[in-house]
Specification:
single chain; 6 helices
């Protein structure tokens, strides 16, 4: 059950650090900095506690899903479900990459790059659906 504590520890750290970097660097932090912070926190907490990597990432995803739902009931359920799946996937990818590279640093960096691309796509899609397409002359 150490994966529960590791995932919650990573989620708490991410909640604090994410708020700080968004305040300092704006929206671009969501896809330029936060992915690497989160991947480092999730993998680091799993390694430090001896917890299962994929389950730690999954607990993080559950915590993020709850937060997303509480902040925005309109989008939060869908975002939360996608988040659970994506964070599970990031944990799996990190483990697979570690198996190939033998380096946690390389694995976290490469998984962070995937996470960065995903966050960029989500920010753009959310912006499109929140505002809608711009109409000519408006």
């Amino acid at each position: 059950m150490s994966f529960v504590w590791a995932g919650l520890l990573a989620a708490a750290g991410a909640w604090v650090l994410n708020r700080l970097v968004v305040r300092l660097y704006g929206e671009t932090a969501i896809f330029k900095l936060i992915p690497w912070l989160e991947e480092t926190l999730k993998t680091g907490s799993a390694l430090l506690t001896g917890a299962d990597l994929v389950l730690t990432h999954s607990v993080f995803g559950l915590a993020e899903a709850l937060h997303d739902y509480l902040v925005s009931p309109r989008w939060g359920l869908a975002a939360g479900l996608v988040g659970i799946i994506s964070h599970w996937f990031y944990g799996w990818v990190t483990g697979v990459l570690y198996g190939y590279t033998g380096s946690w640093l390389v694995s976290v960096f490469l998984t962070g790059a995937i996470h960065m691309g995903w966050n960029y796509l989500m920010v753009r899609l959310f912006s499109f659906f929140s505002v809608g397409p711009r109409r000519k002359g408006k």
